[in-house]
Amino acid sequence: MTQDKLDILSATEAHKMTDEAIENDLESLRPILKKIFEAAQNKQYNCYISGTTPDYVIRKLNILGYKTTLEKGDPRDPREQDIYSISW
After folding, report:
1. Cα–Cα–Cα angle for 49, 20, 24, nearest 5°?
2. Is the pTM for the entire model greater than 0.85?
3. ∠ at Cα 62 (58, 68), nearest 5°?
């Protein structure tokens, strides 16, 4: 199926396509793995990423053995944001 051709797409097919896109997506991991690499070189056992990181990226990190913890920002302070702590 191509985008040029308007075929009827079942929910099952859409689900399978989404699963495949998530499975094959390495671009979203690359900047995070770079942060991990830099932190490890600086003798650190953790680093932080945005709390808006998609759930599937967090799951991939967990599968790779990293521990992820969501740290909520103070909702009273608009400058604070949610962040994930990634540790190894």
Report:
1. 50
2. no
3. 65
